[in-house]
Amino acid sequence: xxxxPLDLVLINDDVVPFLxxxxxxxxxxxxxxxxxxxxxxxVHRQKKPAAAAGSEPGASSMEDLDNIMDEGPSxxxxxxxxxxxxxxxxxxxxxxxxxxxxxxxxxxxILCVPLSVEGDSLSALTLYSRRPNAFSxxxxxxxxxxxxxxxxxLRLVLLIAHLKDANQDLTAALxxxxxxxxxxxxxxxxxxxxxxxxxxxxxxxxxxxNVKLRALAASIITSVAGADIHAVHFDA
Length: 236
Description:
With 236 residues, the protein is α+β, with helices and mostly antiparallel strands. The chain folds into two domains: 5-164, Beta-Lactamase, CATH 3.30.450; 170-231, Winged helix-like DNA-binding domain superfamily/Winged helix DNA-binding domain (Arc Repressor Mutant, subunit A), CATH 1.10.10.10. The radius of gyration is 26 Å and the shape is elongated. The protein has a five-stranded antiparallel sheet, sandwiched between helices. It contains eight helices and five strands. Mean pLDDT is 84; it is low at 227-236. The protein starts with a helix and ends in an 11-residue tail after the last helix.
């Protein structure tokens, strides 16, 4: 049975392993008869490190070259949002620092297509061949068609990653709220005051001691319970 990009989401929905599976699938299914390709896929997200993976080590290392040199076909494809073909790297002058390094890795032609992802994320799929003039117009059409399917799958994986991050943030926020609310209960009981007055006391103490509110709340609970805050269980 043929595997499609969307099928890979069911196998692994973590971003980097998914990119590795997708790059391997592209390298295996996109070449014309008798052609051998390597593939690398990179994703750039705001406030997160770039994520990238390749079908083999040589392709994976090209991401480092792109980042270090701040140039290359994938950056051009992402910027222009269209396919970029470097038919023969030995006659290529668009990326004067990137090209010698790519040739040094044994690559002679490159095809890069942008992937359509939503929001602030940017992505591209890059195919590498060790033969010059390896990509025909039909190969470009095939790569662009694959990119449409890959984009749908990648958007889903990025959405899953976003939801996982949001869930972790919510869990952390709830844990913080629980600690502070519990400490407020202690202050209210000890000082026979209402919630607002207890919160004002905590805020003043936090500012005076230059300690974060949650850390101060945890120390209050620890002093009362005689145990580390992480060892104390509170029923909802």
